[in-house]
Amino acid sequence: MPTEDTAPVIEALAQLLDITPAHLAAVAARPPDLRREPTLRVLVAEALDGPQRSAILHRHYRRELRLLVNGLPAYVDADGRPVPVRPGFGDGGPSAVTDTGLQDLCDAIDEFSASTTLTAAAKRKGQLPTYTRNAYGRGAAARFRTAVRNLFARAEVRRWTHGDPTLKLTVRRGTVDLAVHLTHAQFEDIREVATSTGRDRVLDGLLVEFLWETGWRREGVLNCTLDGVDVLAGSARTSMKNGKAQQSPVNSQLLAQIRALAVARGARQPWDAVFRGRTGRPITVKHFTNLSQRLKRHKPWAAPLRIGPHAIRRHSLTEVTARHGVSAGLAWANHSRRSGPPLLRYLAEPTWQEKQRIAASVFGPLDAPVPLAPSRAAVFAVPYGGPPTGVDDQPDPRGGGGPLAAAAVAAPQWAVAFPSGPPRSGPPRSEPPRSGPPRSGRVSPAPIPAHPPPARPLSPGPAVLAPLFLAPGDDPP
After folding, report:
1. What's the CA gap between 141 and 446, in Å, rounded?
2. 420/463 Cα distance (integer angstroms)
C-alpha cells in the first residue's frame, strides 16, 4: 500500500519503467508466487531427478520417498492377518501433510518391514536371531524419518508449509538385544576360520588376535597407521568413534608381526595404513564382511547371527570387565564416563601401567610369543632378502637354507618379487628387438631360475611383493 513517503518513489519508478503508478502498486502488492501448490509427487520427482536434485535423497532414499508418495500396498502380516492399503501423500501438496499422518505412515512402515522379514525367513526356511516382531522394522522407520526430514528441509517444499510436520516424528526404541555374546568355544571357532580359510590367512589371524587384545571397533582398525604401532613400548594408537584417540597395550611380538607384514606390503610413511591386503592396498569394510561370511559358511552356529568384528570387541570387554571391574571395561571400550550414570564419574581411570597389568592378566604376558597357525602364505610375509623373522628362518643344519629359502626356491616365478607389479596374464606379447629388423613370432619368456637371486637390501620405494598374490594351495573366500 503506497503512502505519502513512498509515493514519490513509486512515481519515479513508474516513469522509469514507462507504466502507470497504479499498475506498479498492484504489481508490488501481488503475492510473490501465484503458482498453484504442486503435489508431493512432483516435488519428490524434482528432489530425486530434477536439475536441483538432492544428492543424498537421490543416492540413498529413493525407496523411502516412494513410500511417502505411494503409501503401502495391502499385505498379509507374519501372523496371517490381512492389512489394508495405506495411501500415501503423493496426490496432495506439502500443506496437506500433518504430523499425525506422517507418524501413522512411519509406524505402518515399521510393521510392514518387520512382517516382510519374518515372512521371507519362513518361506525360505531361513534362520533368524529371534522371531520377535519388535526386533525388526525399526531401521526402515528410521530411514523413512531421515528421508522425510531431508525432503521438507528443501526450500521448494518448505515454502508451502507453515511449519515442519517432521519435528514430532518419532521412531520406537528397540526392545530386543540382537548383540552376539561369544563364548570361549565360539571365539576359538573364529580363530580357526580366520587362520584356515580365505586368501589372506596370515592377515586374518593377526587381525583377530589384534581385535581380541585391543577391543577396538572396526573403525579404529581401519584408521590405524604405521606411526601408531610402537613395538618397543608394546602399544597401539588409533582414532576411534567421533575422532577420539585410544591407546591400548598389545603383545609386542604380535605388533612386530603386524608391522613387518605392513612394511612388506608397502607401508612406508608414518601415515600409511597398517592393515593391508594381498594387493598392497589398505583393507576396507569388505574385508570384515568376507570374514563374517566365511564364518557363517563354516560354522553353523554363526549362520543366523549378525556377527562381525564388534562381537570380538564385546567379548574382550566382557572379559576385562569381569576380571577387573567396570572402570577397566570403560577404559578398554574408550567410553565417556559422562554419558552414563553419575556413579561412573567417581571411578578412577586406570593409568597406563595399570592397563598393561590388566592386559597381561587377561590376554597373557605382553612379551610372550604369539602362536599362529602355519600357512603357506606366511613364508612370503617378509620380502626375499629382508631380515630374518625368527627361528623359522635359520639355516637348516643339513644345508640348503631355512624353510623360507626352501619355500622361495619351490615357489613359482611370480613369488620372488616384481618391482613393477605382477606379471600380465595370458601369453607374452611379441616385441621387436631394440636394434635390427623386427623378428616374427612371439618372444619366449625368461626361464624360471633354479635358485632365488642373492639377498639385497630393501629399497625405500614401494614394491609389489609375493604376499600380495595368491599363494599355491590357498582357497578363495
Report:
1. 62
2. 7
Q: Looking at the structure, tell me whether residues 247 and 117 fall in a common domain.
A: no
Residue span of the structural domain in which 329 resides: 184-363
**What CATH number is given to the structural domain containing 249?**
1.10.443.10
Q: Which residues are registered as beta bridge partners of 245?
A: 239
Cβ within 8 Å of residue 381, ≥6 positions away: 202, 257, 260, 261, 264, 389, 467
Domain-located, residue 307: yes
Quickly count: other Cβ atoms within 10 Å of residue 409's Cβ. 15
Same domain, 347 and 262: yes
Same domain, residue pair 317 and 265:
yes
Q: Cβ atoms within 10 A of the Cβ of 280, count?
A: 17
Average pLDDT score over residue span 402-420? 33
Cβ count near 462 (within 10 Å)? 13
Q: What is the pLDDT of residues 81-130, one digit of tens each?
A: 999 999 999 999 999 999 999 999 999 999 999 999 888 888 877 777 77
- Cell of residue 191, nine digits: 580363530
Would the pTM count as exceeding 0.90?
no
SS3 state of residue 353: helix
Task: Give the tens place of pLDDT for each residue, 82-94.
Answer: 999 999 999 999 9
